[in-house]
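Quick question, first post here. What does this chain look like in 3D?
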Amino acid sequence: MFTRKCEMCGMEFQTASSRAKYCIYCRDKAQVNRNRAYAEKKKAGASVTVGSEQTCPLCGKTYTVTSGSQKYCKECTESRKRKKAQPTAEYIKENYDYIRFNVPKGEGDAIKAYAQERGMTIKQLLLTALDEYKKNHD
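> Answer (accepted):
Ran it through. Tokens below.
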């Protein structure tokens, strides 16, 4: 179970979903708001109908829309996916050093929470702390 804070009313609630944003009281209100926003977008002519012909903003070719969130033709979508691929294990081995360190029991969660409060990963926190130490001890 996950403990979440409702984005609409701020109440904390328990949920089995890791993606839940709203409590049971606000869920229906949020759906009404989404439906209203879509209706306004459709009325203004800004929505894209599935099956309609669109022009790809990247390559200029026309394509048939197959989903409501589609922005690009199939070829451009595939090429954009390849650009966002994660680095391979071989690339990481060649370009990065691996350092592992142990902390006392219970400290790991406190360190993670501290880093998250500051909008950082543990790696970023460690590198920032190292830079600060170097500045103060040289």
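The chain has five helices and four strands.
The mean pLDDT is 89.
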